[in-house]
Amino acid sequence: MLTGKAECVEATLGGAAFHSESLTIPAPSVMRLSRYVRVPYRHAVPMTRAGVLRRDGRRCAYCGKRADTIDHVIPRSRGGAHAWDNCVAACRTCNSRKADRLIEELGWALAVPPRAPDRAAGGILVLAVEPLPSWEPWLGERAA
Ligand SMILES: [Zn+2]
Fold first, then answer.
1. Most Cβ neighbours (<10 Å): which of 9, 29, 79, 129?
2. Is the pLDDT of residue 143 over 50?
3. Same domain, 32 and 52
4. Whether residues 49 and 33 fall in one domain
5. If you measure from the C-alpha of residue 52 to the centroid of ligand 1, how many angstroms do you get, rounded to a whole number?
């Protein structure tokens, strides 16, 4: 920000700032780079609970209601991996109803098979951390 390579679009709530002897700069929550910078993505996007909820648009994969938990489609107790392609957003009701059963045993189905988020959609940036509510306008639609 000092050299014009970036500007603050939205300051951090609460007024946090960086101070020098003669200058005060608001701590940015959202910033814009003045030119495109290629991000050296890692190969695998780390899976987080927040990331799965975001990928699935906070909708329960089983009933479509608002989801607060993640569910392992193939339960971990039955060898299911703790991975993007085995985890879906789920509401508490469906999650506890499903417990450690397979969806086939319940007669349930998944509309969309879960998969790792698209890195090109900013997956690693968006999903590696818990997004702040104030970032929502900048993150666009579901990252998957
Ligand atoms: Zn549900």
1. 29
2. no
3. no
4. no
5. 15
